[in-house]
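Entry 14. Structure prediction run on the chain below.
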Amino acid sequence: MSDLHNKIVFITGASAGIGEACARKFAEHHARLILTARRRSRLEQLAQGLDTDCHIIELDIRDRWAVDEAVNGLPKDWKAVDILVNNAGLGRGLEKLHEGNVDGWEEMIDTNIKGLLYTSRAILPGMVARGSGHVINIGSIAGHEVYPGGNVYCSTKHAVDAITKGMRIDLVDTPIRVSTVDPGLVETEFSEVRFYGDKERAKKVYEGYQPLSADDVAEAVVWIADRPPHVQIAEIIIFPTAQASAMVVDKNN
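Output returned:
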């Protein structure tokens, strides 16, 4: 039996992409899932197809008070969160900084950085008090490299990398583990969101090679979570085979 059996896993951004894939993979191990996202209908549809207990919360992690209310209001049987997957995040645009959309900047900063902080701040005290827990942040290759047009998005993912490292230092005197999974090109709704619904432009990002799937990333997340308690996987960078760095991709296959 997996060590994840009956563990409570809190996933942000669970309505699509990597978050949804993580929910499905954890469900295969019979973990109990707290699924959060802004689109409740998608969460309900996801939960109906999973063979495990699910608790659904319609939640925008950019709202600090809503995050606190959601965590503090968890039913008694759901309060002891074992694993937090900070997945919710997005990119907006690829403009040069001096031509950038400030509203898009705010959305990325509020979600990718502040939302992750709010959720971690709400859940970590319980883990510390119980003396057990695991935080897995979904980062990006953009947290290791800066690419043209990636100015603010890359900044937010560099911040996730720094927060992850700082969190691990702050928790070193506890049994709590802190990990990050940093993917390269993954075919999800990410590019469609980045390009404000331009499906054709988004499609071109993934043409000419085989990108990662959300399942590929989710498998890494679950593997990290299922290591023995004394093993802490600090960081995993995952590329499709056709990718060598943020901007070096062989699209001739």
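DSSP finds eight helices and seven strands in the chain.
Filed with the rest of this week's runs.
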